[in-house]
Design brief:
With about 280 residues, the chain is of the alpha/beta class. It has ten helices and twelve strands.
Length: about 280
């Protein structure tokens, strides 16, 4: 298995660490340093030789309004001509569903994104789904895990406990994202869309309250969503309200969550932090 990733960010680096070597070879692009530079503004150099032996292609670059998907903009023909390609994974987001008033959504639900990020994600998905290669789209919930979590902002008193009635979000621990990707890579299917989220959507305030309890800190004072102190950018984050189902990934990939809710996920992160400080 030879894997190449456009956009070697948090998820891709975690996946690389989870894979067995030398059974797999993993490389990817950076935006500002190294030999494999790709920032979306210009093509990746020597791309034909780089992709020649690649069997699995992971796309983790964000869309933009000028090109929609920068990888396809610069390298669609190169990807269509890859001789050994067995699998493409495109990392999308559940923002493509938009606002459903807290109702459950699945891969067959209407996609009505309410912000520019969601609109661009949906258009990029459409571009990838249109190519005649073995594409799989993974719609990710809010990602958290080691390094990327809310523990430090809670400890430092910087977390904002926003209150919006009946608001929930779907999340996913990075470990569970990578387990789903590994299963899909090992058993390649084509033209599939999967939601990768945990089992229990929850309000952001519930996560903060849980962390305060486990860290023996006082509950953070809440701020109403309509309070003038809440910036427009932060308020827009709370615009969509939906519960995202993960049944399809479980049934088709035989995917089993290690962390079915934020509670199990954060307990694991906190336990490992304690171990590292011993």
């Amino acid at each position: 298995m030879k894997i190449f990733c456009f956009g070697l960010g948090y998820t891709a680096k975690f996946l690389r660490n989870e894979l067995s070597f030398p059974l797999s070879h993993f490389s990817g692009t950076h935006t500002s340093e190294g030999d494999l530079l790709f920032n979306g503004k210009s093509p990746l150099k020597n791309v034909a030789s780089i992709l020649r032996d690649v069997t699995h292609l992971l796309i983790s670059t964000p869309p933009n309004s000028e090109q929609i998907d920068p990888v396809l903009y610069h390298h669609k023909a190169d990807i269509e001509n890859m001789p050994n390609l067995k699998w493409i994974g495109y990392l999308s987001a559940t923002s493509v569903y938009g606002d459903h008033g807290g109702a459950w959504v699945d891969e067959t639900s209407k996609t009505l994104p309410t912000n520019k990020r969601g609109v661009l994600r949906l258009r990029a998905e459409e571009q990838w789904f249109a190519i005649d290669r073995p594409i799989n789209i993974f719609r990710l919930g809010g990602i958290y895990g080691p390094i990327r979590n809310q523990i430090e902002v809670v400890k430092n008193g910087l977390a904002k406990r926003i209150i919006k009635k009946d608001q929930v979000f779907s999340r996913i621990h990075i470990t569970d994202i990578c387990s789903a990707l590994k299963i899909s890579m090992e058993n390649p299917l084509s033209h599939k869309i999967y939601n990768l989220v945990d089992d229990k959507p929850a309000a952001p305030k519930d996560v903060l309250d849980f962390l305060c309890e486990k860290l023996a800190l006082k509950i953070i004072k809440g701020i109403d969503i309509d309070d003038p102190a809440v910036t427009p950018a932060l308020r827009s984050f709370y615009q969509d309200n939906k519960r995202v189902k993960n049944n399809l990934a479980k049934s088709e990939l035989d995917w089993q969550l290690k962390f079915p809710s934020y509670k199990e996920g954060y307990l694991d992160i906190l336990a490992k932090l304690d171990e590292s400080q011993l």
